[in-house]
Write a structure and sequence with these properties.
seven-stranded mixed sheet; seven-stranded antiparallel sheet; about 25% strand
Length: about 700
Amino acid sequence: MLLNEHKSKILFKRIGIPTPEGLAVHPGEEDDFNPDFPLPWFLKSQVLTGGRGKAGGILRIDDMAVFSATARTLFALNIKGHSVPFIRVEPGASISREFYISLTVSRPRKCILLTVGREGGVEIEKLGADNLLVQEIRLPGGLAPHQIRTAFFHLGLEKEQLKEFNTLLTNLFNGMLDNGLLMAEINPLIITPDNHFIALDGKVEVDDNYADLDPEMEAYYQREHATTEENKARDAGLSFVELPGWVGLMVNGAGLAMATMDLLNFSQLPASNFLDLGGAADQKRMETALNLLFDDAQAKAIFINLFGGILSCEKVALAMKGALKGKAPKKPIVARMSGKDAKSGLEILKDLNVDNLHIARDMKTAIEILTTLKPTDAQAIDFPAPMDRPVGQTPKSVGYTNNAVFGIDKDTPILVQGITGREGQLHTRLMQEYGANVVAGVTPFKGGQEVLGVPVYNSIAEANRFHELGASIIFVPPSMAADAVSEAASNEIPWAVCITEGIVQHDMLSTFEQIKNSPTRVVGPNTPGIIVPGKTKIGILPPTPFTPGPVAILSRSGTLTYEVADRLTSVGIGQSLCVGIGGDPFIGVNFVDMFEMIRNHDETRAVVVLGEIGGQAEENLAKYVMKTGFDKPVIAFIAGQTAPPGKRLGHAGAILEKSGGIKSKLETMSKAGFAICPSLEAVAEMTAKALE
């Protein structure tokens, strides 16, 4: 959740950061504005994008008589596609010096970065190599006194300013932790002639997971910066992003949603939105989603693409039937279902016998139908063609060896953390039905009970005294999940699979730092888990798509894993193991870690990697393959290739940081000899060729 300057300064003031006086003025209020502070005033457009100064979005006035007209000029602006919902008005400040200061959560470095600059302003990276100083802050250790002093001396401040600078930086860091911030930037930080610091401008980003857990953070959300549809979706708990096309999109699972968005865009049927139903699709949720798309004037037709994993396609169809109430949909709907209960789900939709509802047996058919629905006035949107590379030359062996072993089989003894909860009980039963060896469960204060024939203990240490434990699976709420991971690692359980999603990023940064010397392999968080087809599963993966065979699937997305496994199984290609490494920015076991084990895994002859935009996981894997001479064929598919830069699509880790980032990712993978699949349709065919 990105805050505008006004909201950022409200938060700054609350955590003890000095800011100028300032008042918000909305359209229609300009004629009655009469503040107590003196002229000159600066009128500052409030938008969630940079470059507002260059665009004329910040204006100074020295005469109150011109305020109303100047305000209306700003209200009429469009800054990089953003309208100006309101302005912040501040008195002019006297400035002796300007600086830059920020705290940001760094995904590549897995820490918080403290950055200070001797000069502030726009494009600070171009102000010379000596301008910026960057220091790494490790959690849970936090900001050290020497780091404050180092920043202080870099800025060339006077000795008498150390106390106030120390207070400011300490308050900013504590405020970051206390409010779940991913970024807190002051640019510029000024020193006034009377030797005080003031945050003259500011920008804050709040971790969405933290905002979900703390209702007080809702006060910082500015509804005016989002579209009507985005606000409705947010209120309903749906993941929705507006896009520039004409095909409304409704999918379950962020990975499959991104892949479907790409398919539409590459087929010249551009998506008008990204909408992830998630794992639940009851009638109320379906009604909300359909109404969003029906009311969206930009969406001319709707594509519903579902893969039933845990989610039942039949239940979704019944929910859709209830939402339509026997009437034809307001706009053409193309529905494709696969996986769990897909046949009965499609029959339910077919039996509705209403106009405007088209049933597609697969994605190819859906695209053909949508093509016939294309409006004559549909505006063309150019997307680069998807990369299509056959299996490359297998890297030459460089004599690289290791002793990493996967080691999970039908006999692996499993502990369930949170076994007495609803999700814990449900998936314990499903794992048992698959043949998993669940030997114990843990829920504090529930020790001595029994769930589904499994003894329950108060702690892992207690369970460890009575059982040999090979893996733990974690079903606990987000606020307690990081500690549950830490407990598993402290007890040195070989594997810890964290299913929980929505964990605050700071919490996982701290936990991974604390357990870095533990032998425990953490999978996740936000993972569907692990399945060894025909032997065991430690997770929430539905068993139907998976069959034993020679191909390992490694994925950042649960639904994509099920979709691809089903496609492979349908052409007779089984799987040796499937691991969801997790969709969050900070995870445990990554692609490289899994390849270390797979290279010694005799049952695996080829690997399918299902990646996403965002982060460096796929590039790091490609470099590892080239460096170590990994000699098993690798087939790769990347979801989200057509995502707009800066938009977070479902997973916390799925955000395209900058334009062109996906091209570099794909090129690096291609150089490593990966077979790059242009679509999901190509995965099975390219895998079969790799196995020849």
